Amino acid sequence: MSDPTHNINPHYKKHPAVSYTVDQCKHGIADQNPAILSFLISKAESRIPKDHELLYKVLQDIEDTGHSRVIALSGAPGVGKSTFANSYGQYLISKGLKIAVLPVDPSSNISRGSILGDKTRMEDIVTSAQVYIKPMPSSLSVGGVAPASFLATHICRLAQFDYIFLETVGVGQSEYEARHLADLFLLLLQPGGGDDLQGIKRGIMEMADILLINKADGELESSARNSLDAYKQSLRLMLPNTYGWKPKSGLYSSVSDKYNADLSSYIESYYDYMSSDDRLISLRERQNLHYFDTHYKEILIQQLLQSNNLRAAITDLRNDIQDQKIYPYIALQKLKALALS
Ligand SMILES: Nc1nc2c(ncn2[C@@H]2O[C@H](COP(=O)(O)OP(=O)(O)OP(=O)(O)O)[C@@H](O)[C@H]2O)c(=O)[nH]1
Ligand SMILES: [Mg+2]
After folding, report:
1. What are the structural domains of the chain?
2. pTM, whole model, 2 decimals?
3. CB-ligand 1 contact for 74 (6 Å cutoff)
4. Over the stretch 114-131, which tens digit does the pLDDT of each residue have?
5. Which of these, 63, 75, 124, lies nearest to 104 by C-alpha position?
6. Ligand 1 site, residue 328, Cβ cutoff 6 A
7. How big is the CA angle at 106 (ends 103 and 109), to the nearest 5 degrees?
8. What CA–CA distance (Å, rounded) separates 233 from 291?
């Protein structure tokens, strides 16, 4: 049998993982340094407690000035979210603005193999120094106690990008997650849908602050106009959101520049509206509380389960239940007493 190690380079050394000090990270955030931002976001994706200790040290005393505008980009797969980020991104860059584009729920993006696709769709902005696009996560183990998308958004806020776009996977849970992270929920729709909601759940449509019929160009332009009329009808029947904002709707196309100014005026009017009466402050406060409320139980449970005594007691109680030595209710009461002791 041939030696399986014969073609391994004996001089090969694994590169040590790049690491940065707390101070370097703080400066990196202030400078919007992409390598450091990606380093920190990878820590946010980690389940290793040490990584979160580092994040804690880096993030704890950097002030969030509230400058960044966080926009969720939602819509069914293939509707053109990444191409939109490229096209509207170019428009923002031309105004001297700095932007970050982050995927929400990157693990499901990877399983659908579209992150690479997303990056190629953003080819015009990917090399710009004014743009940070979060690279593919190094592993699929996204998670830990804090969802990485919250922390990634938070890190980009602290870096004070003018705009942060959160591209969702377009279906289900990630839309709701994005709604809890973003100031503004922008929904892209395919032309030709009319009032059937094209598989977009009504709940998602109701979250939209701005709704665009995308691909309003070439052969699709007239059907995009028809769709817009139909959507305007159904939007009229919808109640304004919690803050009293009535969603705006319009056309968009990533192959021309012609709708960018309109969209920009919709976005401005949304922020004008939300900035008055402290609505935006209140929205962001609610989002922070939502994040805390969703995760503190998980943290406390994890903390408790680190106790060997409790883990052993759970094993014993389960055995006793199986052997019919104890009722499950009594077992829970015993466990509670133990946890409180
Ligand atoms: N004609 C036209 N085609 C577009 C436009 N925007 C996107 N497309 C095309 O639509 C396809 C999907 O675009 P993407 O930007 O990858 O769509 P996406 O919503 O990011 O897709 P996922 O990330 O897979 O959910 C590509 O073939 C684009 O070239 C547009 O404004 N006009
Ligand atoms: Mg995409």
Report:
1. 60-279 (3.40.50.300), 293-340 (no CATH)
2. 0.87
3. no
4. 555 566 788 889 889 999
5. 75
6. no
7. 100
8. 35
